[in-house]
Design a protein that fits this description.
It is built from 13 helices and 17 strands. The mean pLDDT is 96. It is of the alpha/beta class. The structure holds thymidine-5'-phosphate and zinc ion. Thymidine-5'-phosphate binds next to α11 and α13.
Length: 408
């Protein structure tokens, strides 16, 4: 029960039971060959909310990794804006600059950097997404970002002006090595920008499905500040984001003289008001997760008992937690549709619900569709209005368990 960052004693919070690899969509109905107990804990010392048992990164981020950033138009636009309005203004001399992305996935972000004629490099361990990045002309190294990789990059390319990472730092088990490697690769006035699902949003919305194997950590301003301080880095700015159900963008520098934006102080204050520094807040969260679980199961079982057909929209890593925690299978949810070709024809990890194409779902609409990609609600509802308007009702569970019937 030791904190993975500062080694202090933690308090156990949730126990969601045995879980498979969240993105380990099954090729056949075969039995999953790996499971671990999904348990969370909180460190009062460094304020880090984290997983008790962390499955090895190689089990998740491998050649078959099926998550492709470019699947969401909104995320593509989000990264366009990140490059245009945040990264480019930080670049002083275009010709001499170098931008590195940790977890470059299918190259959605770096393609924009490349198009601006700026030297770039992606670092990602998964071949499946790297091949997609390659097809966009994005340069990458297939590796985990760590001290060893950084030493090679530094020798071959030199130091970076900007290091960027989106939804990936929470996947890295050894945070100390990660931040020190970033510090090593950054020029003295370079900037590290990373954004992650935000702990404050998870607590407020009781979005417990943010908790799965890949999310070793759920960060907050107070935990990132403590991590930086202890490694002689400085957190000098933050920006709230509405992506991935509520995220926070953190700006970190090696330069300790950097002026700290008031947003950091205000963000910290807001977290104190939310009680993110207190164990009690997390024990309360645990109770609310259990209440939500029971409410969601009751609703699905009630719909089934009334002979309605129920299917799901989007086979997400988040849905692996929900389905396994709630013990729902294809008797409850007949199928789940997803736009990712690599997921179609597979089965959900643990619960073995078949994954079909969005087109199949549109041709065979159920009475109720559970919105598993609730973080893409606007994009999905706007898109599906044309195909599903008047035919289906949505079931939501974030922030509340509810039926959305009036959505046209
Ligand atoms: P995420 O919640 O981790 O971003 O995963 C989103 C999943 O939802 C991914 O598998 C792609 C899928 N998806 C659709 O099927 N249709 C859509 O319109 C969008 C935006 C996502
Ligand atoms: Zn700690």
């Amino acid at each position: 029960m030791k904190c993975k960052f500062c080694n202090s004693k933690c308090t156990l919070i949730n126990n969601f039971g045995e879980m498979p690899i969240a993105n380990g969509f099954l090729e056949s109905h075969a039995i999953d060959n790996y499971s671990f107990e999904l348990v969370t804990m909180f460190c009062e010392m460094c304020k880090l909310f984290q997983l008790f048992k962390q499955p090895l990164p190689e089990l998740m981020f491998n050649d078959r990794y099926p998550f492709f950033t470019g699947q969401s138009e909104r995320m593509t636009k989000h990264f366009e804006d990140l490059v245009e309005f945040t990264i480019l203004p930080l670049i002083k001399e275009k010709e001499k600059s170098f931008v590195v992305e940790i977890g470059s996935n299918d190259g959605t972000l770096l393609q924009k950097v490349k198009n601006r004629g700026i030297r770039h490099l992606g670092v990602d361990p998964s071949k499946s997404v790297n091949l997609e990045a390659e097809s966009k002309g994005v340069s990458y190294v297939q590796a985990f970002f760590n001290a060893q990789t950084v030493s090679k990059i530094k020798k071959e390319y030199g130091q970076a002006d900007v290091i960027v990472a989106a939804n990936v730092i929470c996947h890295v088990p050894d945070l100390k090595d990660l931040f020190l490697s970033v510090s090593e690769l950054l020029k003295s006035d370079g900037i590290f920008i990373f954004e992650e699902p935000y702990l404050g949003d998870m607590i407020e919305k009781v979005s417990f499905d943010q908790i799965y194997d890949e999310h070793y950590y759920m960060f907050s301003v107070m935990s990132v500040q403590r991590i930086c301080e202890s490694l002689n880095l400085i957190l000098f700015d933050i920006e709230q984001q509405n992506t991935h159900g509520g995220s926070m963008r953190y700006f970190v520098s090696n330069n300790n003289n950097k002026v700290i934006n008031t947003r950091v102080i205000d963000g910290y204050q807001k977290e104190l008001e939310l009680g993110l520094d207190l164990v009690l807040t997390y024990l309360n969260f645990k109770k609310k997760c259990e209440e939500k679980k029971n409410k969601f199961i009751s609703l699905i079982k009630k719909l089934k008992s009334e002979k309605f057909s129920v299917a799901g929209y989007a086979a997400t890593s988040k849905s692996t937690t929900v389905l396994n925690y709630c013990n729902l299978n294809d008797n409850d949810i007949t199928y789940i549709c997803d736009s990712t070709p690599q997921k179609v024809g597979r089965f959900t990890p643990g619960t073995k619900i078949p994954i079909v194409s969005t087109e199949f779902m549109r041709n065979n609409p159920p009475d109720f569709l559970v919105l598993f990609a609730w973080n893409h609600e606007l994009e999905i509802l706007n898109k599906e209005r044309e195909f599903l308007g008047g035919k289906i009702k949505w079931v939501k569970y974030v922030p509340e368990v509810e039926i959305l019937d009036n959505w046209i």
